[in-house]
């Protein structure tokens, strides 16, 4: 090996040594990029919980809000909403008097946060269609059957409370909490509504007739009372009449006639003496 060959070998070794660190940096960078591509971090937002799956198997730990690390490829995190949610369900049932009743029920509910993994494992994410709606239908039918159609209207708060209590017990068994319950509306058959309207009209007419009768009775009593008072007044007047009182009334009448006379005698008479009212009586006095 001559000097030129030794020189070329030395340059080759120096070049390889220079490229080695750069190559390691590139390899490490590629590994980091690939690692980040696998998304080892997951962020859980407000009102959510993270269900941890190890190769598809649900784990006992439930991740709360914030940033969490997961093992790429092995672990998968499924987000479950545990905020307050609203659901409306239409239900058909029959009352105790066999009237068809259609109702719309609205509930506010939420998944119990610590049991999000159990709910996901046993029900999945479609728990409204699988659990809530069937439970509402069963509760509405069971409670409605205990009341008549008229009681469903007049005792609506009691009916709503009974439905809420029963539904709460059913859903709590599936780790779903009921926060509020309300009956949006009841609707009945056309025949029943017409019967209710007729009954209300009859009650209103009966009430009006009763009021009229009471008014007539009061007016009659007032008339009787007034007549009795007048009769009593006449009786007392008759009891107080005496000959002296009669004579006094005659004198008062004659005096009033004299006061009204203008002093002129009538020009035409029908014959006989001209009457002079009360003069003889006054002279006698």
Summarize the entry for a quick read.
With 285 residues, the chain is α+β, with helices and mostly antiparallel strands. The chain contains 8 helices and 8 strands.
Q: For the record, what is the CATH homologous superfamily label of the domain at 85-188?
A: Band 7 domain
- In helices, the fraction of residues equals 55-70%
CATH class of the domain at 85-188: Alpha Beta
Mean pLDDT, all residues: 78
Radius of gyration: 54 Å
Provide keyphrases for this structure.
8 helices, rod-shaped, alpha+beta, three-stranded antiparallel sheet, 285 residues
Description:
With 285 residues, this protein is an alpha+beta fold. Among the domains are: 37 residues; 41 residues, no CATH class; 104 residues, Tetrahydropterin Synthase, Chain A. Helices cover 55% and strands 22% of the residues. The chain has 8 helices and 8 strands. A 3-stranded antiparallel β-sheet has the order 3-2-5, covered by helices on one side. A 3-stranded antiparallel β-sheet has the order 6-7-8. Helix 3 crosses helix 5. The longest helix has 51 residues. The radius of gyration is 54 Å and the shape is rod-shaped. It starts with a helix and ends with a helix. The C terminus is likely disordered.
SSE arrangement:
Layout: H1 3-37, E1 41-44, E2 48-54, E3 57-63, E4 66-69, E5 75-81, E6 85-94, E7 100-111, H2 116-122, H3 127-144, H4 149-154, H5 156-172, E8 176-188, H6 190-240, H7 243-260, H8 279-284
Antiparallel strand pairs: 1-4, 2-3, 2-5, 6-7, 7-8
Helix pairs in contact: 3-5
């Amino acid at each position: 090996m001559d000097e030129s060959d030794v020189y070329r070998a030395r340059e080759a070794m120096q070049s390889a040594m220079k490229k080695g660190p750069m190559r390691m940096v590139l390899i490490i960078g590629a590994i980091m990029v690939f690692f980040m591509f696998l998304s080892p971090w997951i962020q859980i937002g407000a009102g959510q919980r993270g269900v941890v799956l190890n190769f598809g198997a649900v784990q006992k730990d439930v991740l709360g809000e914030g940033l969490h690390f997961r093992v790429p490829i092995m672990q998968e995190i499924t987000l479950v909403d545990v905020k307050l949610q609203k659901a409306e369900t239409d239900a058909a049932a029959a009352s105790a008097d066999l009237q068809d009743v259609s109702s719309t029920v609205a509930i506010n509910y939420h998944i119990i946060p610590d049991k999000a993994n159990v709910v996901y494992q046993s029900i999945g994410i479609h728990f409204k269609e699988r659990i809530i709606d069937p439970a509402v239908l069963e509760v509405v039918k069971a409670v409605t059957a205990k009341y008549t159609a008229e009681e469903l209207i007049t005792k609506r708060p009691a009916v709503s409370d009974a439905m809420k209590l029963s539904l709460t017990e059913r859903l709590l068994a599936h780790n779903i909490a009921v926060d509020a319950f309300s009956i949006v509306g009841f609707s009945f058959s056309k025949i029943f509504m017409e019967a209710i309207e007729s009954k209300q009209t009859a009650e209103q007419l009966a009430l009006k007739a009763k009021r009229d009768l009471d008014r007539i009775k009061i007016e009659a009593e007032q008339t009787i009372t007034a007549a009795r008072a007048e009769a009593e007044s006449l009786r007392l007047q008759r009891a107080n009449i005496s000959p002296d009182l009669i004579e006094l009334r005659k004198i008062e009448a004659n005096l009033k006639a004299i006061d009204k006379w203008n002093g002129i005698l009538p020009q035409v008479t029908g014959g006989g003496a001209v009457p002079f009212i009360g003069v003889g009586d006054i002279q006698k006095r």
